[in-house]
Amino acid sequence: MKRLIIDGNAVYEIDESCMRRKRNRKESSVNQKNQGKKKQSQEKAE
């Protein structure tokens, strides 16, 4: 599905499925970073 954004004289077409994939990739990379930090803090505690 696509969405049109009108901003003054500019018109943008947003591909929602592409944005969803991009958001999912970003969230998964953040989750991987957080898991790495948890693992490091657990190792320090031992």
Brief account:
The chain has one helix at residues 16-45, and strands at residues 2-7, 10-15. The protein is α+β, with helices and mostly antiparallel strands and 46 residues long. The radius of gyration is 19 Å and the shape is rod-shaped.
What does this structure look like?
This protein has 46 residues and is α+β, with helices and mostly antiparallel strands. The chain has one domain. 65% of the residues lie in helices and 26% in strands. The chain contains one helix and two strands. Strands 1-2 form a two-stranded antiparallel sheet. It is rod-shaped, with a radius of gyration of 19 Å. It starts with a strand and ends with a helix.
Biggest sheet: strands, sense, closure?
A: 2 strands, antiparallel
Uncertain stretches? none
Fraction of residues in β-strands: 25-35%
- Strand order in the largest sheet: 1-2
The end-to-end span amounts to 50 Å
Quickly give the structural class. Answer: alpha+beta
Keywords for this structure?
single chain, 46 residues, alpha+beta, two-stranded antiparallel sheet, 1 helix, 26% strand
Write the layout of secondary structure elements.
Blueprint: E1 2-7, E2 10-15, H1 16-45
Antiparallel strand pairs: 1-2
